[in-house]
Amino acid sequence: MKAVSLKGVSKQFRAGVTALDGIDLDVEPGEFVSLIGPSGCGKSTLLRIIGDLTKPTAGTAQVNGKPAERARRDHDYGIVFQDAVLYDWRTVAKNISLPLELLRWSRGRRNARVKDMMELVELTGFESHHPWQLSGGMQQRVSIARALSFSPTLLLMDEPFGALDEMTRERLNTELLRIWQETSSTVVFVTHSIPEAVFLSTRVVVMSSRPGRVAGVVDVDLPQPRTSTTREESRFFELVTQVREGLAAAGAPLGETQEPALVKDSS
Amino acid sequence: MSTIVQPVPGSVGRRIGRTALDWIPPLAVFAIGIGAWQGLVAAFHVQEFLLPKPTAIGEAFWTQKSALWSQGIYTFKEALGGYALGSGLGVLVALFFAAWRPLAGAFMPYAVAANAIPIIAFAPIMNNWFGLLNPFSKMAIAAVLCFFPVMINTLRGLTSVQPSSIELMQSYAAGRLSTFWRVRIPNSLPHMFTGLKIATVLSMIGAIVGEYFGGPIEALGVKILNDSSYGNFTDAWAGIVMASLLGIVFYAVVALAERLATSWHPSARAFQTE
């Protein structure tokens, strides 16, 4: 059973803009797949279709073998947005336990889970703080803890570190990989940073824009666990170059009829 | 963006109570203002019927304090009744409008148009409808005045929610009621209190102006009106002081309730980091 299965997914907005055109994509359980592409390529829209936050105009989206809507109702995935989307009126602990409340967990079970999640994202001690008392990086860690609190099998992330500085982003990248391995979940990760996509993923999906299509897929064969030295390996740079070239080939100017080049890792 | 490295304990007490030091500047301004008023009235020999000295007003206030108190309370009860009625209705209507947008679309233009009407002009009509001596005639005016600011501010709070906040609730398959209760209502609280604070002042205005068009002798507005028509302007001023004190206390109580209900709000930051 695929974690995510997209077949012929297209999305047209009311103004007649085609955001996505005929996307086919399968994600296996346990994979870490990044969607990368220029802004306007519909990668965030694609993520929202997987999460059933918007409907495709054509094609089907399945999560864990079920229609996306059913999967959403079954709480099969957790989502992390670019801005942390924490509720100011809730403390850090209560933000993390929000989905647990909605799932009607008992208070004792909620508290125990929040404690575990605080440890997982290394924020122990900040339980009773309010979101605005935390830095941007810490807020995003709370958001990740909330998304994982009810142990969904799938984690959807929409440019979660896009607004953070480079150092914070790299630290959180390493942390995210540790969390991914500890929780053995599947991740679909939207980004516009090439090194981030290569560092994190087992597979990078390169998208072209207007309309958004899958221009190519790069398999990332860097060994696990990845550390800060991974970024210094020559294979890392090779893969970064492959993704960059794929993006350049896909980013043909408007009106260009040439078929997007297919980028496939030869190894 | 600054990074907090260590958890900082946030004390609710410190957030609510200002330190004594913060009160010194406003108290100094008050003393200087009253002093200047007293000094200028004395220096330019201003006639008492034009502007009495603060000391004269204070003296009149003190000698009539028990009468002023009971008149003030009478009028305050009218204001409070109208406030509860108008604000309660305002919050309720805002909830309905936020829940059913077509309803808001149909009624909003009339609500806005009605707000442009100088509602005080209806005071004699209300007195005619409900009776001069019936406190409800004043409550009605106060209620109509309170309704709009509370409704419009609450509605803004209920609807000005970040789209991603709603998407998050959708991702958890949360129902409309749950989203209302967990997102829209908490989000509206700071806005709602803005309306509720404006309404405290409006309710006192509504009650007193309603009384100017006729009311029982126990009412503060009637007392101020009578004192003025008999030329007892210092006594009228004492009545105004009582009305102001009640208005300020009313406002302060609602502001305190706001602090307690929205202690989570980022605006509380100022009280924490300073």
Report on this model:
With 267 residues, chain A is an alpha/beta fold. Chain A has helices spanning 43-50, 68-73, 92-96, 98-102, 107-120, 136-148, 166-183, 194-200, 234-250, and strands spanning 4-12, 18-27, 32-36, 58-63, 66-67, 77-80, 154-158, 186-191, 203-208, 213-219, 263-264. In chain A, a hairpin with a 5-residue loop joins strand 1 and strand 2. In chain A, helix 5 packs across helix 6 and helix 8 crosses helix 9 (234-250). The longest helix of chain A has 18 residues, at 166-183. Chain B is mainly α and 274 residues long. Chain B contains twelve helices and no strands. The model of chain B is unreliable at 1-16 and 270-274 (pLDDT under 50). Chains A and B meet through strand 6, helix 4 and helix 6 of A and helix 8 and helix 9 of B.
Number of helices of chain B: 12
Please tally the β strands of chain A and state the result: 11
Residue share in β-strands of chain B: under 5%
**Most strands sheet of chain B:** none
Number of strands of chain B: 0
Shape of chain A: globular
Give the helices and strands of chain B as they follow along the chain: HHHHHHHHHHHH
DSSP helix fraction of chain B: over 70%
Rounded radius of gyration of chain A (Å) = 19 Å
Distance between the termini of chain B: 18 Å
Order of helices and strands of chain A: EEEHEEHEHHHHEHEHEEHE
Regarding quaternary structure, what we see is heterodimer
**What fraction strand of chain A?**
15-25%
Structural class of chain A: alpha/beta
| Anisotropy-based shape of chain B | globular
Averaging pLDDT over every residue of chain B, what do you get?
87
